[in-house]
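hey team, just a heads up i'm posting the complex here instead of the shared drive bc the drive is being weird again. everything in one block, sequence lines first with there labels, then the predicted structure for the whole assembly after. its four chains so it's a bit long, scroll down
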Amino acid sequence: MAERLTVGVAARLSRYLQVLTQARKMGKDRISSQEIAEYTNINATQIRRDLSAFGRFGKRGVGYRTEALLEEIRKILRTQGQHNIALAGAGRLGSAIASSPIFAEHGITVAAIFESDPEKVGQRVGNMSVNSIDDVAEICRERNIIVGVIAVPAETAQDATDALIGAGVKIIFNYSQALLDVPADVNVHTSNPAVDLLYALYFHLT
Amino acid sequence: MAERLTVGVAARLSRYLQVLTQARKMGKDRISSQEIAEYTNINATQIRRDLSAFGRFGKRGVGYRTEALLEEIRKILRTQGQHNIALAGAGRLGSAIASSPIFAEHGITVAAIFESDPEKVGQRVGNMSVNSIDDVAEICRERNIIVGVIAVPAETAQDATDALIGAGVKIIFNYSQALLDVPADVNVHTSNPAVDLLYALYFHLT
DNA sequence: TAGATTGTTAATCGATTAACAATC
DNA sequence: TAGATTGTTAATCGATTAACAATC
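-- predicted structure starts here --
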């Protein structure tokens, strides 16, 4: 097995993947490091450096072939497979996530939606029906799910997290404000648009 | 005026802000660098180093006072004011964002929602009514808005972006998959949960 | 006092960037 | 050929970490 990527390299490669996916959809056959730089705010030299560590994917004077580079990065990141994820919360945010086309594009399927509110269990969201959180263990094992998304209010976020972890989930994407306590072998990624915004404002205002 | 923060420092301080905000809500009076480290995945030494660059905020053997540290970081990031933001898109994601409590907590108000779909104009979302995108310039100037959030499908994302920029918006948070073309003085932050997920999976699988 | 945790140093490592030869 | 863009070097800067004295 090749060396494990550093956190920084893996993060940047993911960004390139995102840009290439869209560039392909827009019908761009070729793309230069300069163009990728404009869309990612990552320095063009850094991009070429990152890529050339794995091979000579570009053509001087021309750029990179979008499709080929996409495949190379997928190989490096080993993200060619299909992945099932579980969603906790069938409210507004949960529904938005379940119906978003953004996951399918990268081989990710929202394979189950869970709710603790009995009123919502059985309702349809997107093309799925909402499951009771009590069935989380059975369903996650059956569908081979190790990624869970928390789209419930802060008050119930820890309960939803505990339930998912009990069902074998190892990666949690937290869209609530709550700070989640998890065992050491579970990874939490917390998203907070408000905090990202304060950060962006700092650079705008100074 | 003090030195401008580096990108890395500003990003980390924002994360501390997020943790402190929640810790305060949970009634924690004091917090140690070790505790902040657990919630942010940032090394505890780095946290103390970041903070001590601006003053001696902690007490040896005790930790930091949550409330006081929160205020210090707000001062450093200059995010004590109130900010109005505009939202493009009154669909599922737009509604979720408009009704989220996550912004108010940091002094951010969704001050206007815009739609190009005439069917949706005038409808109520949260405690606001949806405006026509044709009125974006007038409303953004009136409400002093320089931040816009794109919560429309990829197909109309560029149009929504152009409208917001025409109205004076300088910071765009893009929740669509589209790559947005913007003038040099406008900053785009694109969020893609699917890409973040691939990145998280890489470290889980290797 | 004993235990805990900060503030700071010193050393290392990775990120960033400009510059430019190679080459398409 | 002329123009463009990669691949690579070299130099600098910031991030990361262990270690530990200071001190609450």
